[in-house]
Amino acid sequence: MEVTVKSTGKVLVGRLPKGSDLLEALTQLCQAAGIQMGRVQAIGAVTRARVGYYDQAARVYNFLDFNQDLEILALVGNVSLKDGRSFVHAHVTLGDAQGQALGGHLAEGCEVFACEYEIVEYQAERPLERAWDQETGLMLWPNK
Ligand code: ZN
Q1: How far is the CA of 55 from the centre of ligand 1 (A)?
Q2: C-alpha closest to that of 119 among 74, 81, 79
Q3: 76-132: per-residue pLDDT in tens?
Q4: Where do the H-state alpha helices sit in 34-123?
Q5: Which of 2, 119, 113, 105 is closest to 60 using CA atoms?
């Protein structure tokens, strides 16, 4: 199943406050603007990071904590509904002082040093809503 995007709606471009939680702040922006479906991208830096890695066999997220200053090389994500509320699902690539990349599923616990974001709203007949997927153990978009 897929949803046809009829047009783009609001486009939010701005900078997150220093010290804010990256995922929480992006989610709050979407909820405040009533964005139910869309895409998110951002660049910047964090003072610490927490990312998830989904263990497909065990069906659990393992979280990795990085207590160091890191560049946000690329944050890419989408917005859809989960439990009736705007939900941001994003992955992030971070760079350390040596230019090495690390990253994963964006989790709460990434503290913003500076972050420039763009959020684009998608308008469709109805937004995608996440639901439990038995094959993966994840809350995913329906595929049939
Ligand atoms: Zn993910």
Answers
A1: 12
A2: 79
A3: 999 999 999 999 999 999 999 999 999 999 999 999 999 999 999 999 999 999 999
A4: none
A5: 105
> Distance, CA 131 to ligand 1 centroid (Å)?
14
Question: Could you read off the pLDDT of 107-120 as tens digits, one per residue?
Answer: 999 999 999 999 99
Strands 101-106 and 60-66: unpaired
Determine the distance separating the centroid of ligand 1 and the alpha carbon of 137, expressed in angstroms: 12
Identify residue 108 by its one-letter amino acid code.
Answer: E
Residue that has been written with the tokens 């616990």 in this structure = 109
Report CA dihedral (88, 91, 96, 102) to the nearest 10 degrees: 150
Task: Tell me how far apart the alpha carbons of residues 53 and 63 are, in angstroms, rounded to a whole number.
Answer: 6
The 10 Å Cβ neighbour count of residue 115 is 22
> Which whole-number Å values give the CA distances from 43 to 49, 64, 81, 136, in the listed order?
14, 20, 24, 30
What is the rounded CA–CA span in Å between residue 27 and residue 31? Answer: 6
pTM of the model: 0.96
Buried b (16+ CB within 10 A) or exposed e, 72-94: bbebebbbbbeeeebbbbbebbb
Per-residue confidence (pLDDT) for residue 23, from 0 to 100? 98
